[in-house]
Amino acid sequence: MIRLSHVCKSFDGGRTHAVRDLTLDVQTGETLVLLGSSGCGKTTTLKMINRLVEADAGLIEVGNQNIREMNVLELRRSIGYVFQGIGLFPHMTIAENATVALRLNGVGRAERRRKATELLELVQLDPDALSHRYPRHLSGGQQQRVGVARALATNPHYLLMDEPFGALDALTRDSLQQEVLRLKQQLKKTILFVTHDVFEALTLADRIAVIHEGRLHQVGTRQELLRKPATQFVKNLFGKPRSQLAAFSEHLR
Amino acid sequence: MIHRAALVYIVVLLLPAQLRAQVGDTVVVGSKNFTEQEILGELLAQLLQEYTDLKVQRRFGLGGTGICHSALVAGELDIYVEYTGTALLDILKRQPENHPDEVFRIIADEYRQRFDLLWLPPVGFNNTYTITVRADLAEERGWQSISDLVESAADLTAGFTSEFMARPDGYPGLRRAYGIEFGDTADVDPGLMYAALAGGQVDAICAFSTDGRIVAYKLRVLRDDRAFFPPYDAAPVIRGSFLRQHPEIQTALTPLAGTISDEIMQQMNYAVDELSRGPAVVAREWIEARATRSTPVLAQGRADRLAPSSNILSFAARRRGQVLVKTLEHLRLTGLAMLIALVVGVPAGIGIHRFARASAPVLAATEIVQTIPSLAMLAFLFAIYGLLGPVPAVTALALYALLPIILNTYTGLKEVSPELIEAANGLGMSGRQRLMMVELPLALPVMIAGIRTATVWTVGIATLSTYIGAGGLGDFISRGLARNDARLTLLGAVPAAALAVLLSLAIRHLERRLRS
Question: Is B26 helix (H, G, I), strand (E, B) or coil?
Fold first, then answer.
């Protein structure tokens, strides 16, 4: 499991905080969604877990180990990361991109090739058609499927997903969300998923943590958040789309 | 195995010439980069080849007095022909002196004491400024010496070079010494004044006494009866220690002492410059004629070669072997320089990308290197190494190639998107893995564009390495320019241009394949 205790981060020497006194755990096998508007500190939180950003204060543990006491490369390799901007390497084929983490671990070429096929099938891409193509030949949705495959390559226990579907159109996003749900059932990973999209959070989350201006407002299941919002912010956050939906269904009638 | 062979090759190539030469006893003969010097170099080389057991190595076409002299002092040359006036004024920086024996005594003493260099007896001719007129006019007016000209000078137009007009040993001094005053003076180019005189545009010129065109245009050199022009007697200069080791050299070169008059030197220059005969052939004919006490053929009966442009293809075809050798030499210089520039420049580019603070000073330094004129750079590196040949040449070329390689490596790395850097970090790549797997492959197209620029420059600049005896296609170009032979110049220039274009196309092809 992933545990954050009293974690702080400031990018301007303490005048303002991107993350303020955050305490949160992600249980083993659980999908926790960090929900908040942009600039609220959720991406920073994610990056602190694999030390792309170092926390100023507080304790972060992954699998009961303080991440500051772990080798940073080993830490990162033990966590799958799906990037907001996808970040596929344009000079590598799809197969190479999907298995790049295996190459870092010294897995041989033949094994990587076999594994690439398996990974692409796992994210519902056709290995025969796509293995030897380059990222620019793929649609945005296909590219992010490869991004997910890349994060899963070393079969990590933990998966950090940073608004992975933010840049995709609604239909593609929906199909990828279904994909994550399927993978979640199939692979039972511990997933921390960042989004600003309330519906995405409701679709994917076992529990949702609402963050606003660097502070945690509430964490709980969707029923808890919907029925017993802890703050006015949480109430508004879910209230707004609910009234929109009501107006929308009114319209359809 | 290939790598080891290449390494051995590079090491051998970079060894100082002296070490390589020590296989047998070798004498290194030098010359400056104009025709007369090459003929004299050939005369030395062929006499030494014939009358001693020494192996002869030629280092001809060196870019000037300074380089020849320094090379001799450094032991990179053993012998070359220098002019007494040049030694007195340019090397020893002494005051002008007009008596030939006195000049010879001064320079011989000072060379021996300061440099342990010895002057052998002068070969006979004096290559100095002269006042020269058309032979028919001299005949008609009975002009023999400059004094004969004084009376009619007011009616004559002189064609003088701007240098001659300004030098104290030029027109200003001449006026004082002879009280001569030409009616008019025209500023003429040193290369064109002979034709101007022959064509009647001017009546007298400041010709060099041994120029082949004096023969070609049927001109007459007027005797300097007041001994105004300082003497520029040609004589071999040799390293003292080398002569003591090989005293037989002195005997071998006796045929040269006092035997080549101004007229013979004019004819030999004429044979090479105007008839396109090789300096080696002309020298050989003189040596053979000297041995049999007959008159050398030299300038006679070779008029078939007078039309320079008519048969340029057959001219090139006859020399295709030489062209191939020089092209390979050129490629070797370029290739080695590029190899060194890559080995130094790529890590330097990576270094300044990592340590951003170093980027400004390193780039500024390589840009300053770019502004050094190529010939100055060659002369400077020659002075630092005290070596002629490929070592200073390759160093100079590598220094010039550094800028595009360092700059493009740096730029290429800087242009890699931060998103991809973060992805690489997030996946757990070490700095080294990120560099090798992500940053360098993505920077490669930009880097290769830099390599292409550097290669084209290097092929071009390498044509100048001839001036410090490093060979390559520049050998043809400098000889062609010295002999005013466009065909010879083209023999070097065309393959050099072709090489640059071909290499550029090949690298561009590589670039395209990498981008796609």
Answer: strand
Contact B427 A73 (CB under 8 A): no
Q: What CA–CA distance (Å, rounded) separates B460 from B472?
A: 11
Q: Domain boundaries in chain A?
A: 2-216
B442: contact with A, CB 8 A cutoff: yes
ipTM: 0.91
How far off is chain B from A243, nearest CA to CA, in Å? Answer: 37
Contact residues, chain A, for B413 at CB < 8 Å: none
| Option in B426, B433, B441 nearest A83 (CB) | B426
Q: Do B425 and A76 touch (CB under 8 A)?
A: yes
Q: Is B437 on the interface with A (CB under 8 A)?
A: yes
Orientation of helix B320-354 relative to helix B2-14, angle to 10°: 100
Within 8 A of A85 by CB-CB distance, chain B residues are: 419
pLDDT higher than 50, residue B303: no
Domains defined for chain B, CATH in brackets: 2-126+232-305 (3.40.190.10), 131-222 (3.40.190.120), 320-515 (1.10.3720.10)
Query: d(Cα A116, Cα B168) in Å, to the nearest integer?
Result: 85
**B426 vs A74, A76, A91: nearest CB:** A76
Domain A2-216 fold is Rossmann fold (3.40.50)
Distance CA A182, CA B487 (A): 79
pTM (two decimals): 0.77
- Residues B166-183 have pLDDT tens digits of 877 889 999 999 999 999
For the segment B272-298, what is each residue's pLDDT rounded down to a tens digit? 888 878 899 999 999 998 888 776 665
Q: How many CB pairs under 8 A join A and B?
A: 48
**Which residue's entry shows tokens 């006499």?**
B47
Local structure of A78: helix, strand or coil: coil
Tell me how close the Cα of A89 comes to any Cα of chain B, in angstroms.
Answer: 7
Would you place residue A84 in the very low, low, confident or very high pLDDT band (cuts 50, 70, 90)? confident
Q: Which two tokens stand for residue A158?
A: 């933990």
Cα(B310)–Cα(B312) distance, integer angstroms: 6
**What pLDDT does residue B10 have?**
53
Chain B contact present for A43, CB below 8 A: no
Least confident of B90-94, B215-219, B257-261, B310-314: B310-314
Do residue A52 and residue B433 have CB atoms under 8 angstroms apart? no
